[in-house]
Amino acid sequence: MKDKIISKASNLFLKLGFKSVTMDDIANEMCISKKTIYKYFCNKEILIEETTETGLKQINQTIAKIVANNHNAIEENFEIIKMFKEMFNSIETSPSYQLKKHYPEIYQKLISQSKTECHSMFQQNIEKGIQEGLYRNELNIQSHVYFYYALISSINENIVSEKESKKLELEALEYHIRAMATPKGIIELEKHLKTPHL
């Protein structure tokens, strides 16, 4: 039952917003009593925290599957961007923006949990791109990891519209890759920028 509540709450939070959805809304949607929800979650903040942690785990698992598919480094980045776009396609307001505005403590905890994962993923991608001849050999990897993370974080924290956020994330990815790419990498980048599903 706990997993079902998390799943339903997650859908409602993403569709209607973390602030707007009440425990009554979740109970009504599931045709259960509010008391049942409180049996597992003593308040809405705990439910939001567990929901976002579960969502983060699912995202990390999906990214790991993409990485395991052995795409080249640039294609891998675009597959991850595509995954995020599909995952949040029907959402109007950026979940990160909502959390930061209405539940800053939960947001900060989530950021601290995801930062290490993000840095590791960005570093592995850059190292892979260098080996493939898509990124330049002489790159300061840690600097580029830091710059890209700062860009993506700023977009997610400050842009209200999820659609605008995803558009800017794609432009940030292009900016990031162009700063690192070899001529071979630029050709690969241009190929993916022409892909209509982005």
- Summed up, the domain count is 1
Largest sheet: none
> Based on the structure given, which CATH architecture is correct?
Orthogonal Bundle
Separate helix tally: 10
State the low-pLDDT regions, or none.
none
Instruction: Estimate the helix proportion, in percent.
Output: over 70%
Q: Determine the strand fraction and express it as a percent band.
A: under 5%
**What name is given to the CATH topology?**
Tetracycline Repressor, domain 2
Summarize the helix and strand pattern as letters. HHHHHHHHHH
Number of β-strand runs: 0
- Helix vs. strand class: mainly alpha
Mean pLDDT: 91
**What oligomeric state do these chains adopt?**
single chain
Distance between the termini: 37 Å
Descriptive keywords:
single chain, 198 residues, Tetracycline Repressor, domain 2, elongated
Structure commentary:
The protein is mostly helical and 198 residues long. The chain has a single domain (2-193), classed as Orthogonal Bundle (Tetracycline Repressor, domain 2), CATH 1.10.357.10. It is built from 10 helices and no strands. The model has no long low-confidence stretch (mean pLDDT 91).
Protein topology:
Layout lengths: L1 H15 L6 H8 L3 H7 L3 H25 L4 H15 L7 H8 L1 H28 L9 H18 L3 H19 L2 H11 L5
Summarize the structure.
By secondary structure, the chain is mainly α.
